[in-house]
Structure formats: structure tokens, C-alpha cells
Amino acid sequence: DVKVTQSSRYLVKRTGEKVFLECVQDMDHENMFWYRQDPGLGLRLIYFSYDVKMKEKGDIPEGYSVSREKKERFSLILESASTNQTSMYLCASSLRIRVGGMNTEAFFGQGTRLTVV
Amino acid sequence: DAKTTQPTSMDCAEGRAANLPCNHSTISGNEYVYWYRQIHSQGPQYIIHGLKNNETNEMASLIITEDRKSSTLILPHATLRDTAVYYCIVRPSNTGKLIFGQGTTLQVKP
After folding, report:
1. Coil, strand, or helix at residue B89?
2. What is the helix, strand, coil percentage profile of chain A, to 5?
3. Residues in contact with B20: Cβ distance below 8 Å, sequence separation at least 6, in sequence order
4. pLDDT score for B1
5. In the predicted model, what is the mean pLDDT of residues B1-12?
6. Which of B35, B45, B98 to mutate to test the interface with A (most CBs of A within 10 A)?
7. How confident is the model over A51-75, as pLDDT tens digits?
8. Which of A61, A82, A112, B94 is the most interior residue, by most CB within 10 Å?
9. pLDDT value at residue A49
10. Is A83 part of the contact surface with chain B (CB cutoff 8 Å)?
């Protein structure tokens, strides 16, 4: 059974703390994604990685960084957490797009609900 | 990246077909149309995708217009468990980047 695992389901951190959100996938996928989801705003892409050590900014990268040292693990880092980063964070992975339209559906983790106080 | 436009919400009677429209008028030739749905408190789930031909699987059918500027997701016999937010996404074939829009909240009613 395919699996994307996020390290924590719920997390409470203080303003100014450095926060690490971890995501691990066991499907040998090249692509990995970090999103945040807020009421009324849908899912917004923070960062995208298409290979080890490769990353690309999404729509809202400010205040975040990422690390992809191994293929199976993609970490989201909040350098100095702020209250406006309180949100649900979702990680996903997929195969790299193949020519011919082969299905490269993305699989999502269950999410981490982060509260910054 | 091409953007999509979907109605904010729709209702459907249980057992009837649910037809969810999506406008993607700026889609380019190498971009696929993907549909996902998100049931409350869960991560999004893949439904179906297509390039220019209509597609069908065990969950749904995808109808793409000839000019590819719009598409419709069809759930042939909606059940209460199909109540969810449905996202239409245009995905570049060269990067695999997945950008979600606001989605359509489908409420299936008894």
C-alpha cells in the first residue's frame, strides 16, 4: 500500500521557534510537494522538489525553506515561526511526468496541523 | 501555468449524475487536466486525468471539449460519500508541478 507519512498530526510551537516538518514516502517518487491549506484559500503550493537536492518555489515560499537530501524524505522548515503560519500542512509525492500521459497521480499525507502561539 | 475556474459550490441529489464544470481557457498543448477531491479532514485523492480525449475509470468520467478550454467531471451516480471539494488542475507535462485552485464544494443530498 502506497504511503506518504508526515511526522506529526498536530504540533504546537512558539513564535520565533525553528520548526521542522518531515515527510517520508515509500514509493520511490521523484517529485515531492509541500502545501498549506487555510479556510477559504484552498491548497497553496509552498515548495516543490523534482529530485534529490533540487527544489523550486511554489506560490508562497516566503518564510519557508526545504531540504531534500534523500529521495524519500522532504523536509519543510519554518526558520522563525510566526502566528500567520498557523495552518494545515500537506505533503505529497508523485512520479516524474512521463511522455504519453502515464498516470502520475500525487499521493498525499494526512497533514500536520501546526499552531504557532 | 494555466489557471482554472470552477463554481464555488454545487448540490446534487443522491443517485443522480453530478456534473462538475471547469474552465481552463489558457491551457497549452502540453498540459494535462487532472481532477482531485478532498473529503473533510483528509488529504486530496486523485480521481482522473486526460489530455484531449474523454476518459473514464471506475470513479468518474472526464469530458474535455475539442478546443480543450473547458472540461466536465461526471460522477454517474452520486452517493453521500461523494460530498467533497473537487479540484480541477492543469498540470504541465514537463515539470509535474501541481497547483490547486479554489475547487468546487459538492454537496450530495438524500
Report:
1. strand
2. 5, 55, 45
3. B6, B7, B10, B35, B72, B73, B74, B75, B86, B88, B104, B106
4. 58
5. 88
6. B98
7. 999 999 999 999 999 999 999 999 9
8. A112
9. 93
10. no
Please state, in angstroms and rounded to a whole number, the distance separating the CA atoms of residues A50 and A94.
Answer: 9
Residue A1: pLDDT over 70: no
- CB within 8 Å: B44 and A43: yes
What distance in Å separates the CA atoms of residue B81 and residue B1, rounded to the nearest whole number? Answer: 32
* A contact test, residue of B5, B32, B35, B99 with most A CBs within 10 A: B99
B81 φ, ψ (degrees, to nearest 5):
-70, -10
- Residue A23 contacts by C-beta under 8 Å, 6 or more apart in sequence? A4, A5, A6, A7, A32, A34, A73, A74, A75, A76, A91, A93, A109
Residues of A in contact with B87 (CB under 8 A): 42-43
